[in-house]
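Hi everyone,

Forwarding the result from last night's run.
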Amino acid sequence: MKSSAGSGVTSTVRRKTFVAREDLLDRMSALAKTQGCSLFDLVNDLFELVVVADSLNFSLKRVVEERKVLEMAKCAGFVLGLERLWYEMADIAYKNDKDDALKSWYDSGVWFASRYVTGSGSFSFDQFRDDLLVFTWNAPEFDFKLTGNKLFVKVTSPRFTEAYTFFFGSFLTGALERFGYQLGNKEFFRGIIRLDAVRSSVR
């Protein structure tokens, strides 16, 4: 049998029948129409992508999830940069104007958290936490433990410089205070951040 028109394949190809969920097949068919191709072409494109991803030791699901992370980060105002350069710039700012730099990171934390706080006073702390965990891939350990109205945060990374540790700690402080948490104990050591906070009210 020959492939569907528009696929660009003129040689004879063999086809096999496979089973798929009806709702997904209907959505795929509609998607094929919007893209101006046949369902045959679209399905085979997907199969090819699965094979390519596997050859790179990825799953197609992982590729999509990582692309989603990049889109989320872009919409949240993040930019990609060399990790080493980021740490070096943090060290320079820490050395030359520590107080202003700390305030800038604190204000950025407040701004970032504000994206998850609505005008009605309700908030989505879980979404904030999940997004931040995804974006902060340079921290191998990033734990949020919520017990009642008490929150414990721990961040560790052997690559953090002292300056970056303090700056990121200030960022987290601003974000948590925006959510109405009052910070108690704070411990900042190179590569280690520990924060204890109690929930009061959203500002």
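The longest helix spans residues 83-114.

Cheers,
N.
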